[in-house]
Specification:
The complex is a heterodimer of chains A (260) and B (761). Chain A has 14 helices and no strands. Chain A has 260 residues and is mostly helical. The longest helix of chain A is centred in the N-terminal third of the chain and has 29 residues. The N terminus of chain A is likely disordered. By secondary structure, chain B is mainly α. The radius of gyration of chain B is 47 Å and the shape is flat. The chains are: A mainly alpha (260), B mainly alpha (761). Chains A and B meet through helix 3, helix 6, helix 8, helix 9 and helix 10 of A and helix 1, helix 4, helix 6, helix 7 and helix 9 of B. Chain A: This is Cyclin-Q.
């Protein structure tokens, strides 16, 4: 955890309004590598967030909130300025508060420490521990300020579940119980938080897209009426939307193959 | 891999997918197993399906996860929600929004409807064989938009429950009633639906819904929403969703996840790195926290031990308590605190701490050691307080913990000896006490006795005029048996039945043996002792103050005899227990009981070699015991000696008569309101087994007694009443005593008198 910025230096480096605009005008090759490097980092950190979420027993929605906070934070600031893992820890802490699944900093620090130092003994109650704790708390405030305190989001999860129930009524009950549509769509939804697509698309669209992909994976056919089932679920969704989201999502799986 | 699912996918996507699959899943043994199977069919892409290579590649890559049998989680049973609450937004069926054509909806309905679903509809015609219902909506099990399909279902007569008043059940129903019914049968080919109002037709998860006539309020929520949507074109799915109450429920996600069966603690993922198998339990927050708490607590304990060694006990305790706050069951902290308690002297607290520590970690050496030491110390403390048994318990506990603990072993040995000694001492003390207590009578007791005897004397004087010379064995037997019975009742009541029975049985045994001898050898010299006892007991009423003394002496005498002749130590302990028991219970009637006991023992002393006759003798003995007790009481009440003696000696002759007499007596005594009698009846009932017809007669009498008097009266009145009863009984019996025994009796009476005089001196 030595890479973490200690509480003292947090003040010095906070430059909340540094725009990423400057970076975009550099040479294409640089941008690519840099942006791809960034994407790689973000992917890894989001993977870190998701793993930590499981180990902390976090529900799907708070984990999603943490990832969204993280993505939104780094949409505005540069990754070179702020230690992404510390920001991730703070996002987890903050998301727990926002989504009413309160987590103790002690648990977050324990799990993260072990993530970086496999199989190590838990931290003793010393200066390291307290410094880390201070850092997390300070960073949390930083994230809040960066996001202008807009920290509650509409997530696709609620929509996806209601869509699932509606679609379930369309199909034969035995076919439904045979086919793991719900699990697959839920897994796809959770996985989509590895990338920024979760902040670039509307939650209903994401929900529809994951459901669509799940149905496609198993070759399930739904009755057709005047309108498609997915058109009905959300008024403004188009096939393009769905396709874009699906392709983004699949891209994420490729990223995993590449970078982990 | 799930072959059927794969086949379904393949038939949707076509051969290209199969190619991808083969490529991506070449190392997957699950795939290989079914590859051959799958390749047999050739797959055509469905018409209208797009060529989506990326998706197909994705499917192929993730096929090992997607089609794994464990991927599918088992959904819990579908429970119909209480729609008043709306935990999540209940939506009208999608078909409605999609405007699925009529025919297709109809086909789908017939395909998907099943037995046990609930439908709601309106009665459109009633016939003799049942009624027809036009279906309006589904009530559970399936959610479809069916109203405009205008499907009619038949509810046959036999599926209409009768309402019990022998009318035609159909008369209860009228046109246009809203009916909720269960689908009983579907003929998909002919598109006929049969419904039923019997609850048995429902699926198990829908069982609690009421079938029959319903009101508009009972219509399901989704139906009202259907209507709303049908009436208003602007109502889109989205608007309905966002407008419903369940949508705003913050825990609707959790709720639906539970309904569907997806776990939040082990969430599914298609990412390779997030598969469940990669997560180790020790990386989870709770596990790390526990370890951390333990180590933090240990730190505090170390500091505390330092304090302890330097003598700063208060600080040490503070540190230990701090450690235990951090980690509740920390073994080291508990052991250290226990040691501190033990040093301070709060041994019990120390023991609690050590035991708690050993619960968590049974092999902790120090905990065991300290616990042993503390237990031994506590045992020592208890020993000094004379609580020897508890102390022994502690020592033994210490030994079970550590077999080789020398102090504990020593202590256990010591305490065992001590306990044995103390038991012996106690025995002797109790014996002495028993004697003493016989002698020591409270003035209240004495007074009561005097009163009792005076009353009896009065009654006897009335009767004795008629019974002065006629010693009817049967009467005396009856009386004696009655007395013995009541005595026994008292005996039986007060101390434990088992003991009593044993005492009595053994004493009866002896008595019976003695009686046998008595029977066969008319008054041999060595039986005088028993008569002696009897006589002293009979003489007693005349020497009121000396009663107890005599009793005590005779009791001890009897016991001496008993010990010498019959070495049943158990009986002596029984007697002890009895006497002890009597101590604890009513002191009032101790003496009569002891008299009984002494008598029994005295008679038992006769029983040298009479043990062969145990079987028969036992039973006889019991009868006689009863009689003897009766006799005793009678003597106490002031009956003349000869009656008493004759009673015992006449037993042999008039066993049958006596038993009948006793039955008579018991009936008589029962007339005199003796709940105690009934108790004895019960007792004798249980004791006697298969004696014979007379026994049965006795039993019947006693049964009657029992039935009549269920412990209504206080038994304190019983001495008086029993006296009365016995007195009256005695009267009748006196006449039967043969004269050749008169000599004997007079001799014995003389002898007794002399003895009494001697004792007085």
């Amino acid at each position: 955890m030595d890479r973490f910025v200690s509480s003292g230096s947090m003040e010095a480096v906070s430059r909340g309004d540094s725009a990423p605009v400057g970076r975009m005008v550099t040479a294409a090759g640089d941008t690519d590598t840099e942006s791809s490097r960034e994407m790689k980092t973000h992917f890894r950190v989001c993977r870190f967030i998701m793993e930590t979420g499981v180990k902390l027993g976090m529900r799907s929605v708070p984990v999603a909130t943490a990832c969204v906070l993280y993505h939104r934070f780094f949409q505005c600031v540069s990754v070179s300025v702020y230690e992404p893992y510390l920001v991730a820890m703070s996002c987890i802490y903050l998301a727990g508060k926002v989504e009413e699944q309160h987590l103790r900093t002690r648990d977050i620090i324990n799990v993260c420490h072990r993530y970086f130092h496999h199989g190590s003994a838990p931290l003793s109650c010393g200066s390291d521990f307290w410094d880390l704790r201070d850092s997390v708390v300070q960073c949390e405030l930083l994230v809040l300020r960066q996001l202008n305190f807009h920290v509650s989001f509409q997530h696709p999860h609620k929509y996806l579940l209601h869509y699932l129930l509606s679609v379930k009524s369309l199909v034969n009950r035995h076919a439904w119980s045979r086919t793991p549509i719900a699990e697959t769509s839920w897994a796809l939804l959770r996985d989509c938080y590895h990338g920024t697509m979760c902040v670039r698309h509307a939650p209903q669209h994401i929900a529809i897209a994951t459901l669509y992909l799940a149905l496609l994976s198993y070759g399930v056919e739904l009755p057709v009426g005047e309108r498609e089932w997915w058109q009905v679920l959300c008024e403004d969704v188009t096939k393009d939307h769905v396709d874009t989201i699906i392709s983004d999502l699949l891209h994420l799986y490729d990223m995993e193959a590449k970078w982990t | 891999m799930d072959r059927d699912l794969l086949r379904q996918t393949l038939s949707y996507h076509g051969q290209t997918l199969f190619a991808h699959l083969k490529c991506e899943q070449s190392e997957n043994p699950g795939f290989k197993a079914i590859e051959n199977d799958l390749s047999k069919a050739s797959y055509q892409r469905k018409d209208g399906g797009e060529d989506n290579a990326v998706v197909e590649q994705f499917i192929a890559r993730k096929a090992d996860i997607l089609f794994a049998p464990s991927w599918k989680s088992s959904a819990p049973e579908d429970v119909l929600e209480d729609e008043g609450e709306e935990p999540y937004a209940i939506m009208p069926p999608l078909e409605q929004f999609m405007d699925v054509p009529f025919e297709e909806r109809r086909n789908l309905l017939y395909r998907d409807m099943e037995r046990g679903d609930i439908v709601i509809g309106r009665i459109n015609s009633i016939r003799d064989f049942g009624f027809f219902v036009t279906l309006m909506c589904m009530g559970g099990g399936l959610e479809r938009d069916i109203e405009d399909l205008e499907i009619t279902a038949l509810c046959p007569l036999r599926d209409v429950p009768s309402n019990g008043n022998h009318d035609d059940p159909l008369s209860y129903y009228q046109m246009n009633d809203l009916i909720r019914a269960g689908v009983k049968d579907i003929d998909r080919y002919h598109e006929k639906i049969t419904i039923s109002l019997q609850p048995s037709s429902l699926a198990p998860n829908l069982m609690n819904l009421k079938l029959g006539v319903v009101s508009r309020d009972d219509l399901p929520l989704h139906y009202s929403r259907i209507l709303r949507v049908a009436n208003d074109n602007r109502e889109t799915y989205e608007r309905v969703l966002e407008g419903s109450l369940g949508y705003s429920n913050p825990s609707n996600v959790e709720y639906i996840l539970g309904k569907i069966g997806i776990s939040e603690t082990q969430p599914p993922s298609l990412m390779r790195g997030l598969q469940r198998k990669h997560f180790l339990m020790e990386d989870f927050a709770t596990a790390i926290r526990k370890k951390q708490s333990a180590s933090w607590a240990l730190k505090c304990v170390r500091i505390g031990v330092d304090h302890f060694k330097s003598g700063r006990y208060v600080e040490a305790m503070n540190e230990y308590n701090k450690a235990l706050e951090i980690d509740n069951n920390n073994v080291e902290a508990l052991v250290a605190r226990g040691a501190l308690y033990a040093n301070k002297g709060s041994l019990l607290k120390a023991i609690t701490d050590f035991e708690l520590a050993l619960e968590t970690c049974p092999t902790h050496r120090n905990a065991k050691k300290y616990l042993c030491q503390t237990l031994v110390e506590r045992g020592g403390q208890l020993e000094e307080e004379e609580k020897l048994v508890t102390a022994e318990g502690f020592y033994r506990k210490a030994l079970t913990l550590d077999d080789n603990f020398p102090d504990a072993k020593q202590a256990v040995r010591k305490i065992e000896l001590l306990i044995q000694k103390s038991l012996k001492l106690r025995d002797e003390a109790a014996a002495k006490d028993a004697e003493k207590s016989k002698n020591v009578e409270t003035s209240a007791e004495k007074l009561r006795k005097i009163l009792k005897e005076e009353k009896r004397m009065k009654r006897k004087r009335k009767r004795s005029s008629s019974s002065s010379t006629s010693f009817s064995s049967s009467s005396s037997e009856r009386s004696s048996s009655g007395r013995r019975k009541s005595k026994k009742k008292r005996k039986w009541r007060r101390s434990s039945r088992g003991e009593k029975r044993r005492t009595r049985i053994s004493s009866k045994d002896n008595k019976s043996v003695a009686d046998d001898e008595e029977e066969w050898y008319p008054a041999p010299p060595n039986t005088s002792a028993s008569f002696l006892n009897l006589k002293t007991s009979t003489v007693r009423p005349f020497d009121v103050p000396d009663t107890t003394e005599d009793q005590g002496q005779h009791h001890s005498k009897g016991r001496n005899y008993f010990r010498s002749h019959c070495s049943l130590s158990s009986v002596s302990t029984d007697a002890l227990d009895n006497s002890r028991g009597r101590f604890e219970e009513d002191p009032f009637d101790i003496s009569p009981q002891r008299a009984e006991g002494s008598k029994g023992k005295g008679e038992g002393s006769k029983g040298e070699g009479g043990r062969d006759k145990n079987g028969d003798g036992e039973v006889n003995g019991r009868v006689r015991d009863r009689e003897a007790s009766r006799g005793k009481r009678k003597s106490q009440e002031g009956h003349t000696v000869p009656q008493e003696v004759s009673s015992s000696s006449e037993k042999a002759k008039n066993r049958r008569t006596s038993s009948s007499a006793s039955s008579e007596h018991s009936s008589k005594s029962s007339q005199s309101n003796l709940p105690s009698q009934s108790c004895v009846s019960i007792y004798s009932l249980s004791d006697i087994g298969g004696y014979g017809s007379t026994e049965q007669a006795i039993k019947k009498e006693e049964n009657r007694a029992v039935q009549r008097y269920d412990g209504g009266d206080k038994y304190r009145s019983s001495p008086y009443t029993s006296g009365n009863g016995k007195g009256s009984a005695a009267e009748g019996k006196k006449k039967v005593l043969p004269t050749n025994l008169l000599d004997l009796f007079s001799q014995i009476a003389q002898f007794e008198k002399e003895k009494c005089i001697k004792l007085k001196k």
